[in-house]
Amino acid sequence: MASLPDNPFLRPDPEQPDHWLIQGDWTLADYSRLRQLIATAHAQSIQHFSLAELGRLDTAGGQMLVELLGPEGLQQACSDADLPQERQTLLQRIADSQQQAMQPGKAGRKPDLFSELLARVGQSMVVFWHHLIDLLGFLGLTLAGFARLAVNPSRWRPTAVAAQIEQTALNALPIVALLTFMVGAVVAFLGATVLADFGATVFTVDLVAFAFLREFGVLLAAILLAGRTASAFTAQIGSMKANEEIDAIRALGLNPMDLLVLPRVLAMLIALPLLTFVAIISGIFGGAVVCALALDISPTMFLSQIQQNIEMRHFLLGMAKAPVFALLIAVIGCLEGFRVSGSAESVGEHTTSSVVQCIFAVILVDALAALFYMEMGW
Q1: Same domain? 134 vs 97
Q2: 207 shares its domain with 255
Q3: Where are the alpha helices (DSSP H) in the chain?
């Protein structure tokens, strides 16, 4: 029989040769001593153990027993010894977890960068597909809600719609006007810098007008509302979801779609075209100021140039995109609010997600609309 130094954790079994009795308390307090004991036992190739005299045990001691006996040996020792049920359960779970960690292909496998990249791309595509399906479904519910209210106009909530228009349109008016004014000035500066080399500085007026009538006016207004209003929609509805107020609304027999979503969507459908018009006027005014101060193009000449070279259809094509952007922003903001799981962290995550999704959707639809206009010759 192998010999070990005297210790309180392991002693020979006098009745069975080559068997050792595990005794004492196997706890975290004696971790270092247990580690030395296991190293000595492995060095002497001791293989047969009994748990009949095991004292107190915690997870650290259970881990030491797994290292000493191995997962299969520990399971066999648990079945042979008459241990309490809770101790057998603890040791069994530790042995199972250790055995799973030691399976081939799981332990010590080096990460494959290409496989990890493909896995992340696939996961992102699955998440994108689920978001798209949810968005289309929620959009259908919203349109069905509008159809239902059109049949029964008495269920409209004009007070809620007016309050949302104030928050969405009137409160956002200063920041939209200021931002588009500065962007119009920047576009005029850049256009004048490039066109001056060709002796065509006067066409800076056309550049500013075309840019804001067709693209910049509606795009900047939509992006601002995506960051300002969509996040507010998500936070408001998400907080109500976290506080179980939406469940209370359903318990009262009311429809959350009619009460929370439709007024916000209708307010956005009204607000974004108005803000787009303000953005167009403000951007063109910013370009006119730069032309008057830096290019010696008087306001009268500026307006005359627009009247001669810019057709009305460019303004209509830009304004036509505003309701589509408004519907997407409002629906995405409300949908992310209903996805909140019930914690403050979830409210923050979905608020960020709503802003990102709204900006992505706005730019994607704007690019598709630009391609469509080009193909149609508009």
Answers
A1: no
A2: yes
A3: 31-43, 59-80, 85-101, 113-151, 158-165, 173-195, 204-211, 217-225, 231-242, 245-251, 256, 262-294, 299-309, 312-338, 344-376
Q: Looking at the structure, do residues 194 and 298 belong to the same domain, yes or no?
A: yes
In a domain? residue 113: no
Which domain does 151 fall in, by range?
Answer: 124-376
Give me the tens of pLDDT residue by residue for the chain, a chain 378 residues long.
455 555 676 666 666 666 666 777 777 777 777 777 777 766 666 666 667 667 777 777 777 777 777 766 666 666 666 667 777 777 777 777 766 665 554 444 556 788 888 888 998 899 889 888 988 998 998 899 888 888 888 788 888 889 989 988 889 899 999 999 999 999 998 888 888 778 788 888 888 999 999 889 999 999 999 988 999 999 889 888 888 888 888 888 888 888 888 999 999 999 999 999 999 999 999 999 988 888 888 888 888 888 888 888 899 999 999 999 999 999 999 998 888 887 778 888 888 889 999 999 999 999 999 999 888 888
Residues 244 and 345 grouped into a single domain: yes
pTM over 0.85: no
Residue 263 and residue 331 share a domain: yes
Rounded to the nearest 10 degrees, what angle do helices 113-151 and 312-338 cross at?
Answer: 100
